[in-house]
Amino acid sequence: MCTALVFSKRHVTWFFTTRVPEFTGDLVPFLTQEMTMKKCPQCRTDLPLEARFCWQCGSPQPTGQAEAPVEHLLVDFDQPLEPQLVEQFFLALKRRVEAEHEASQFTAFSERIYAAGFRDRVALRSQQIVEWVENAVRQGQLDIFQMNRRIETIFEDLLDQFIVQYCSDLTGVNYPIALLQYQEMPVARISLFDMVMDYLELPAEKVKFYTDFLQTPPEKLRNASKSFLFATREERLFVLVDLSLLGSAKEGFAFTDKALYWKAPFQKPRAVPFDQIREIHRKEDWIAVNDFFFNATPSLNAKMLRLLSKLQRYTRKAEG
After folding, report:
1. Rounded distance, CA 121 to CA 160, Å?
2. Strand locations in 155-235, DSSP E?
3. 0.90 exceeded by pTM
């Protein structure tokens, strides 16, 4: 039984020649798949759910299910809700600035809220949240977890709108306006490939990337698959970005329908499945993904932070 690379116009699939999986590029199958096994975050080897170490690479594995933290309300019902929600929005802004930009810029971002007239939009959404909460209380259907997640999601979407539309001079990044379309789009309609490409906006970057694998030099795919792209045979490759100095594709990153793979110069190859994204934040001129070093270009790093945060929210919603 031999291993083969199968090419199609936009996707490449690794598989054993006796078994050809069907292509599914949407987000729904990824979010609804039944997890009877887990994959090592480092080498992507299939492991039993209870495994504490990877038998292939020896990496420690996440330990089972920890005790769930107590969920607390983000607001106090004994006090007016709208001012509290506005405060929560500015706290969310502070967290976003600290995680993805410069903490010292928080004042500038806050002042831009007022200068751009965005404070009115925040107030309107806060009023809508108050109406939804009061209606849920009247009907006896208030769920603390659901309410907190809804508030967080609304504020994350507002922050995306604000930063994309009004803060390019503060961030130094021209975020693609196309990423905002995913705020209201039902999950069932989302193409994961399209979302990756819309968020990263690779044609605007000075990097070499491949999505049409009929036109991709085979040696680049071989080099990437030997160096860092250790995808399983069930995965579909969406995009390969070559960041190597000599154009060998031995360094760079790639998205499949299940995970992000990458390798930086003088660093170990890394892989993070979308459902195992724990923490993403900016560190100086690079970013940390689950505490692993990732660095492309300044603007790609910023866009990658937004994309991975969105994927983290989707998987968190599916688990909730």
Report:
1. 13
2. 208-210
3. no
